[in-house]
Amino acid sequence: MSQFHKLTIKEIKKVTQKAVTISFNVPENLKDTFSFKAGQYITLKTSLEGQEIRRDYSLCSSSKSGELKVAVKAVEHGVFSKFANSELKVNDVIEVSEPNGRFTFEPDQSKSRTISAFAAGSGITPIMSIVKTVLEEEPLSNFILIYGNKTPEDTIFYNELLALQTQYNNRLKIQFVFSQAQKEDALFGRIDKSVVNFVIKNLFNKTSVDTFYLCGPEAMIYMVKDVLIENHVSESNIKFELFTVATPEKTNIINAVIGQTNVRVMLDDEEFDFVMDSKKTVLEAALSEKIDAPYSCQGGICSSCLARLKEGQVTMRQNNILTDSEVAEGLILTCQSQPTTSIIYVDYDDV
User: Fold this and answer.
1) Mean pLDDT lowest for which of 34-48, 198-212, 239-253?
2) Share of the chain above pLDDT 70, in %
3) Is the dihedral of CA 26, 30, 35, 41 positive or negative?
4) What confidence score (pLDDT) does residue 256 get?
5) What span, in angstroms and rounded, lies between the C-alpha atoms of 250 and 257?
6) pLDDT score recorded for residue 3
7) The pTM is what?
8) Rounded to 5°, angle at Cα 320 from 318 and 324
9) Distance CA 351, CA 302 (A)
10) Residue 82 class from Cβ within 10 Å (0-12 exposed, 13-18 middle, 19+ buried)?
11) N or C: which end of the chain has fewer CB within 10 A?
């Protein structure tokens, strides 16, 4: 289970009018703890106006850079993102979790392959880590990036990407897509079906891509995935990570047990027993019992609250991460799981 460590902020850099990068000082004794795979994220925890806030942010540095750095874009009604862009300062202390996440790329310097990514807005953040890692650690491999934004000025890492394209001009190809700006060599509009088809069937039709990485809004990701499959890309070669999802309508779970469920939770080699209302999620119930269960987004789009169901059954309200085989093995997202039996046993340690 990921633990939190207090880290001081080393640098804050404005990268667009609405986004900053935040770098952390990592003490020597925590270097191994904060080693990460390209594409992983960290959870930042702090208190604002007396309320604990946890937010996931993908690392945007390469895995061998020695940097622990994230990008934070201010969003409407975003409590932490606005705070980070306007009030956070160098030398402030933030609690930071150990790196987590399954949206990863692991380099192999002996391989020669082409990796491609479709990203929109702040979805570039984990992709940036993967781009840098491919270029730095797989010298025989190439990268194709399709990146959508409103304008160049709104584009996180725009100048850095141009610099990388110059440095690795034979290995990195970038196709910018702008919805509110006409620019030479960029496509006008949004990343939609026509753009994906144009990229696959025209721009890079003679290129064989090994793996596609998709990151951005939910609708874009599923559209791109569907079009890739239509173009005979194997679903096993498509990886994606959501940073926002549509809020599901509240529905009654048909098989939910009526009333209460007896719960046993294993966490950090300690067992906790309690009774919960079956209308709640396992995570909600655990937190109400003052159990320090791991969590972050509480929306089913990160894997911070992952656990293994050892006894009983649950139904997940939504699942945007776990594969069918992982669910069959007993893995659950506790922030989405409601009991459907009178007894359940949930193990946070066995994941």
Assistant:
1) 239-253
2) 95
3) negative
4) 53
5) 17
6) 86
7) 0.81
8) 90
9) 14
10) middle
11) C
Average pLDDT rounded to a whole number, residues 334-347: 94
Which tokens sit at 94? 């933030």
Tens digit of each residue's pLDDT (9 = 90 or more) over 16-59 = 999 999 999 999 999 999 999 999 999 999 998 888 899 999 99
Q: Are 112 and 139 in contact (CB under 8 A)?
A: no
108: phi then psi, degrees, rounded to nearest 5 = -140, 105
Three-class DSSP labels, the chain: CCCEEEEEEEEEEEEECCEEEEEECCCHHHCCCCCCCECCEEEEEEEECCEEEEEEEEECCCCCCCCEEEEEECCCCCHHHHHHHHCCCCCCEEEEECCECCCCECCCCCCCCEEEEEEEHHHHHHHHHHHHHHHHHCCCCEEEEEEEECCHHHCCCHHHHHHHHHHCCCCEEEEEEECCCCCCCCEECCCCHHHHHHHHHHHCCCCCCCEEEEEEEHHHHHHHHHHHHHCCCCHHHEEEEEEECCCCCCCCCCCCCCCEEEEEEEECCEEEEEEEECCCCHHHHHHHCCCCCCCCCCCCCCCCCEEEEEECCEEECCCCCCCHHHHHCCEEECCCEEECCCEEEEECCCC
Contacts of 332 (CB under 8 A, 6+ apart): 282, 306, 307, 308, 309, 314, 316, 322, 346
By residue count, the chain amounts to 351
Q: Among candidates 218, 40, 204, 68, which has minimal Cα distance to 130? A: 40
Nearest to 186 by CA among 158, 213, 227, 157: 158
Specify the pLDDT at position 45: 93
Asked if residues 245 and 333 have their Cβ atoms less than 8 Å apart, the reply is no
